[in-house]
Specification:
The complex is a heterodimer. Chain A is α/β, with parallel strands linked by helices. Chain A has four domains: 119 residues, Rossmann fold (3-Layer(aba) Sandwich), CATH 3.40.50; 94 residues, 2-Layer Sandwich (Alpha-Beta Plaits), CATH 3.30.70; 120 residues, Rossmann fold (3-Layer(aba) Sandwich), CATH 3.40.50; 92 residues, Alpha-Beta Plaits (2-Layer Sandwich). Helix content of chain A is 35%, strand content 25%. In chain A, the strands form four sheets. Chain A has a six-stranded parallel sheet, with helices on both faces. In chain A, strands 14-13-12-15-16-17 form a six-stranded parallel sheet, with helices on both faces. A five-stranded antiparallel sheet of chain A has the order 7-8-11-9-10. The longest helix of chain A is centred in the first third of the chain and has 14 residues. Chain A starts with a strand and ends with a helix. Chain B is mainly α. Chain B is globular. Classes of the chains: A alpha/beta, B mainly alpha.
């Protein structure tokens, strides 16, 4: 597929990286010389310097033979104009990043009028993700599949969980029958476990299953999920606005700290249900006087990664159970997690995942990537073109590091065993390591190829 | 520096070179020359030296700029070294230094020779000599990138270090694809020229030899008197046109193939290059008419051939320009510094750099008239980045510095002015023949061994555009921890 990305910023760069690695021809257009030369030196992409709005630049990039244009510059307006121009010049699909809350209300109108195929609002997506995590507070991360009927949670294994030191197959039916431990991360290495695998302390595990079964699993393993009733947010940016609205819908009380007085006034107008505090979110005295230690959750999302980290650590030290930090620079995520912050949210990563899901194809319903794409969890709808319908899974001969994690069939959620089969119309959740899967046939093709 | 990755790719390069010797082996077998054993042995040695390091496990480490430059610099020196083996082993060139000179002259598409009696040599050897032009013209590394499975994103570093021009670009997103397209165009041009030369009356063998010399802008011939030996007007016209084509940017031909037939005329560098060629031909023709040749046609024919041959850095000769007036010879000497376009197979400083230098000159002067004015240097319709400009200025200075140092070294031979200066200009710019002893009718055999080594290095330095080889001399380039 030929893809043009306009804007070589963080999102543009990471998109270009994953898209070019999965065999797409990627062309990046940007005005900034430094950003372009970084992409040119490190990635297998073609860089063109200029404005993505300009017709001649788009023509030079061969817009008429391009399949997809992704506009991720810092300006919403530029992104929209780029997509509009490109569509007129003959590109098949366009994706625009539009992040201003003012536009957010008009998204469906914009989408129709500008003939956009996908609009990404990273702030809103991030807010939704945070709300998800708060809904399931013991998890580091929560991901929804099959429209929420299946969830995947990332958990950190602690001593009291009682699953350490036992091979997965001996873990006992009551504990593990209805859920699946799909991926284990140990020392930054991604492992797709088999029955003989033994979990150790400090591993991070990804557990997939029906939400109710996941709750049970957590209860049994001694991690009792507790509902979050009130949270404190440091930083009143766009994500905070979206998040505060979402949380008040979930009956969670919000206390919001913002440094800028003008902004505080705007926020209090916008968010009548939240308590707005004017002050510095990294000031321990302020946090204490606003009794941070009684909060169930603390989310730091100012514009500065460093401040977010500091205030998250302060909150953790003061005994907040669930601490989430927003981080823009993706490289820091693992360091920050190791410092004790419960969850880290990166709007850039979320944006990348959304767009990749779109690029991967129509059959892909959801896509979740672990550690820069080392492992991927893909939700695919089985259509009549799939080769692996109605064959017992044990006969498919799936390659190593690929597992079929869940099959969702109408009301039923199946954690498949060797004798289960995939039928037409099923939603199949596949876990794969070091391999991009964009259709069920690729799962089958694997088996025909090497095994 | 990542020594494992570097040695693995160098190993691949040598294996590639061994494979490249196979056509010469076939030619030599076809003509039942005495040089078959020399090729067989050279292939064996090159392959055996290269093969073990290709099995090195390199892990997932990527190639950074430093590694790319090391691969290119060391790669070209090694290529020339092993490329010299057939000459030396077959006994065609008894001295190894001479063989090395001839091989580097071949790979760098210089065309400077130390051979005095070319016609007496076995045909396999002569084929190999010219075939190195063909390979070196588009680049050995580019060839390796095109054939081998992707080395990864770092490959662009190597391509940048090898390709001529200030900002060599990919024409499609993937390096390997770009390399394949470039070689595709290159092979097409080669086939067309062989057919045309064949139609003009050259034997197939001679047509192939001169095509390799032309499209690689090299200049090795199988005749002592170069193209002049045939005294065939059609051959001269065909070679002139193809030398001109190969001195221009190959990306333009890709755009033409994609349907943009006017692409060359839209390109500012190509117009500059054509302008310089036409102006030089006109000036020399006027100068020659009545002085050296009696007919205007004769003057035009030889001035056009020589001008295009020198500016494209090929170095074929149709006549002995040693007998021309000083004006014509000085123009040719100046053209030796100009060279071809970026992205061509030609050498020297390149037209685009001269254009940018002139534009910077104009800007500096205007800046005095309007001290507060802000001028951007433009190329085509785009503004040129200040970093690129300072790189061009730096390159120009380095080129001159290398030139002066090499002239100083060659001057130890105590030869005349013309020989000393033109030998360095002609090797550093990858042209081939100079003036005086190394002129159109002469060769480099009478120079001292020291000068030959200096000039061999000049050829490689010039082909790789100064930076890679100079970097090898920087101590901090080699250190693992370089602070």
């Amino acid at each position: 597929m030929k893809i043009i990305i306009i804007g070589a910023g963080k999102v543009g760069y990471s998109l270009a990286e994953s898209l070019s690695k999965s065999n797409n021809d990627v062309i990046i257009i940007d005005k900034n010389y430094a950003a372009l030369s970084k992409a040119e030196e490190n990635l297998e992409v073609l860089c063109i310097r200029g404005s993505g709005v300009s017709t001649s630049i788009l023509m030079e990039a061969g817009i008429d033979t391009t399949d997809l244009l992704i506009a991720v510059t810092s300006s919403d307006e530029v992104n929209m104009v780029c997509c509009l121009t490109a569509k007129k010049l003959g590109v098949k699909f366009t994706i625009a990043r539009i992040r201003d809350p003012e536009y957010a209300k008009e998204l469906s109108l914009l989408k129709e009028e500008l003939d956009l195929d996908l609009i990404i609002n990273p702030e809103q997506a991030a807010a939704e993700e945070i709300a998800n995590v708060l809904n399931f507070p013991i998890a580091i991360n929560v991901e929804n599949f099959a429209k929420g009927r299946v969830k995947m949670v990332e958990l950190k294994v602690t001593e009291e969980m009682g699953i350490i030191g036992i091979p997965l197959r001996d873990m006992g039916s009551k504990l593990i029958s209805s859920i699946l431990i799909g991926v284990v991360i140990r020392n930054e290495e991604v492992i797709v476990p088999n029955g003989d695998f033994v979990i150790e302390e400090n591993d991070r595990i990804y557990v997939i299953g029906k939400p109710s079964n996941l709750y049970n699993f957590c209860k049994m393993s001694g991690k009792c999920p507790q509902k979050i009733r009130n949270v404190m947010i440091a930083g009143g940016g766009r994500i905070a606005i979206y998040l505060a609205k979402l949380l008040s819908e979930m009956d969670i009380k919000v206390k919001l700290i913002e440094f800028d007085r003008e902004k505080c006034i705007q926020l209090s107008e916008l968010l009548p249900e939240a308590l707005i505090i004017h002050g510095d979110g990294t000031d321990e005295e302020l946090l204490k006087s606003e009794n941070v230690s009684d909060m169930d959750g603390f989310i730091s999302m100012t514009g500065m990664d460093e401040e977010n980290l500091m205030s998250a650590l302060l909150a953790k030290q003061n005994g907040v159970k669930k601490v989430i930090a927003k981080v823009s620079r993706v490289n820091y995520i693992n360091i920050i997690k190791s410092l004790g912050v419960d969850s880290v949210i990166s709007p850039k990563l979320i944006t990348t995942n959304h767009i990749l899901k779109f690029v991967r194809g129509n059959n892909i319903e959801s896509l979740y990537r672990i550690i820069e794409g080392q492992a991927e969890i893909t939700e695919i709808i089985a259509d009549s073109a799939s080769d692996i319908l109605n064959i017992k899974i044990k006969k498919l001969g799936l390659p190593k590091d690929v597992i079929i994690a869940t099959i969702v069939r109408k009301k039923e959620v199946v954690i498949p065993h060797g004798n289960d089969i995939i039928r037409e119309g099923d939603r199949v959740i596949v876990i794969s390591k070091n391999k991009n899967i964009s259709s069920l046939n690729e799962v089958a093709a694997n088996s025909a190829g090497g095994f | 520096m990542n020594f494992r990755v570097v040695s693995r790719i160098l190993g691949m390069l040598l294996v590639c070179e061994a494979l490249l010797m196979l056509p010469a082996l076939v030619v030599s077998a076809y003509y039942q020359g005495t040089d078959i054993h020399a090729f067989a042995l050279s292939i064996l040695i090159t392959g055996l030296v290269g093969a073990p390091s290709t099995f090195l496990k390199t892990g997932k480490k990527s190639i950074y700029a430093r590694d790319g430059f090391a691969i290119v610099a060391l790669g070209w020196i090694l290529m020339s070294f092993f490329g010299a083996l057939p000459f030396f082993i077959s006994g065609a060139i008894p001295s190894f230094i001479d063989s090395f000179f001839e091989a580097s002259s071949g790979f760098t598409t210089t065309g400077a020779s130390i051979l005095t009696h070319i016609e007496d040599l076995p045909r396999g050897i002569l084929f190999w000599r010219s075939f190195t032009h063909w390979v070196g013209g588009m680049g050995v590394i580019v060839l390796t990138l095109a054939i081998l499975p992707s080395i990864g994103a770092g490959a662009v570093q190597m391509m940048k270090a090898e390709s001529p021009g200030p900002s060599p670009g990919k024409i499609v997103p993937r390096v390997a694809e770009t390399a394949k397209i470039l070689y595709g165009i290159y092979i097409m041009i080669t086939i067309v020229e062989i057919i045309l030369l064949r139609l003009a009356g050259l034997p197939f063998y001679d047509a192939a030899i001169h095509t390799f010399g032309t499209v690689g802008t090299g200049g090795f011939s199988n005749m002592n008197a170069s193209v002049g030996a045939y005294n065939n007007i059609y051959v001269e016209i065909i070679i002139t046109i193809f030398m001109f084509i190969c001195g221009a940017n190959f990306t333009l031909y890709y755009q033409m193939l994609k349907g943009d037939l006017k692409a060359p005329f839209k390109d500012e560098e190509f117009r500059f290059y054509s302008g310089v060629v036409i102006l030089s031909i006109a000036l020399i023709t006027i100068n020659l008419y009545g002085n050296v040749f009696n007919s205007l046609w004769e003057s035009l024919r030889h001035s056009a051939f020589q001008v295009v041959s020198i500016i494209s850095t090929t170095g074929y000769t149709s006549t002995n320009f040693e007998t021309w007036g000083m004006f014509g010879k000085i123009i040719l000497l100046m053209l030796m510094f100009v060279g071809g376009c970026a992205g061509s197979t030609g050498g020297a400083i390149k037209n685009i750099r001269f254009m940018l230098l002139f534009k910077v000159m104009k800007r500096e002067l205007l800046q005095i008239i309007h001290p507060k004015a802000v001028y951007t240097v433009r190329f085509g319709s785009r503004a040129v980045d200040e970093k690129t400009i300072s790189e061009v200025l730096g390159f120009f200075f380095m080129y001159i510095v290398v030139f002066i140092i090499a002239v100083l070294a060659v001057s130890l031979d105590n030869l005349d002015w013309a020989t000393t200066i033109s030998s360095v200009a002609a090797t550093l710019g990858n042209i081939g023949p100079g003036f005086g002893i190394v002129g159109a009718a002469g060769n480099y055999s009478s120079l001292s061994n020291f000068s030959k080594i200096v000039l061999s290095l000049c050829m490689i330095i010039g082909r790789l555009e100064i930076y890679p080889i100079l970097l090898l001399g920087m101590p901090s380039f080699w250190k693992r921890i370089n602070i």
